[in-house]
Design a protein that fits this description.
- 27% of the residues lie in helices and 31% in strands.
- It contains 5 helices and 12 strands.
- Helix 3 packs across helix 4 (160-182) and helix 3 (73-89) packs across helix 5.
- Bound molecules: biotin (BTN).
Length: 249
């Protein structure tokens, strides 16, 4: 994928800036990186804590050629992030369905893919990725219990070099993402996604809109859908979220 990386010190959200560029005909592979965000966006309308301090906040523009590429974006993104983190830092992370990056049972990052369907021929997807690399000193109380950074508190310097080094992780993510996405390696990506999953066999709460159901995760299928046992009934779900109820089973 030909990439065009644009780097900013602070933005409201890299997703917002990239969406604006996309509507003004930016090409697939355009990537916006910010060293901090004032209004980082998470999934389900949540915010994403985005302080300055050597963390990665990036958005990548995708203009999928067909439904298959569109369908597998989130699966491929999660696999690419896990593999890039291992390549850059030698740290093995896992995926908590649907798109959280997990380390030691806590969230080290998240991924959000937003399709903008404002005319079929010009459909695009903004793929937003946030990774906590160095732990900033002011992690808010409400997210602290579930928050982790890849390199921990001691690694934080707040320096310009630390900010700039995040670009290497972004480049590795884009390179690995492109291999699966442009090479059509969808089945391989789905198998890796299952292998990196940290939820198979776990007791979870499945949350869909206002509803919450207790379930056991049986599997992640070949499309990245989660297969749940909801008390005798086995069913695959593509949308929604899960909360892990019992951390170690
Ligand atoms: C989540 O865990 O809910 C998804 C978090 C995604 C955060 C990233 S940071 C870069 C990009 N810009 C945003 O505003 N959000 C995504």
């Amino acid at each position: 994928m030909e990439t065009d990386i644009r780097i900013f010190d602070t933005l409201e959200s890299t997703n917002i800036t990239l969406e604006h560029l996309a509507r003004n005909d930016a090409k697939e592979g355009t990537c916006v990186i910010a060293f901090s965000q004032n209004a980082g966006q998470g999934r389900s309308g949540r915010s994403f804590f985005s302080p300055e301090g050597g963390n990665l906040y990036m958005s990548l523009l995708l203009r999928p050629k067909d439904d298959k590429q569109t369908e597998y974006i989130t699966v491929i993104a999660a696999v690419a992030v896990v593999e890039a983190i291992e390549e850059c830092f030698g740290i093995k992370t896992g995926i908590k369905w649907v798109n959280d990056v997990f380390l030691d049972g806590k969230k080290a990052g998240g991924i959000i893919a937003k399709a903008n369907d404002y005319g079929k021929s010009s459909m695009f997807v903004v793929l937003g990725i946030g990774i906590n690399i160095h732990e900033a000193p002011d992690v808010p109380e409400d997210i602290r219990p579930n928050y982790i950074s890849l390199l921990g508190k001691a690694s934080y310097s707040g320096s310009r070099e630390q900010n700039e080094s995040t670009v290497d992780l972004a480049k590795a993510i884009i390179r690995i993402f492109s291999r699966y996405y442009e090479g059509g390696l969808f089945t391989e990506a789905a198998l890796k996604y299952r292998r990196y999953s940290v939820v198979i066999g776990k007791k979870v709460e499945y949350i869909f809109g206002q509803d919450t159901i207790e379930a056991i995760v049986c599997d992640i299928d070949d499309t990245g859908a989660i297969v749940l046992d909801t008390g005798g009934k086995i069913k695959a779900f593509r949308d929604g979220e899960i909360r892990i109820v019992v951390k170690d089973m």
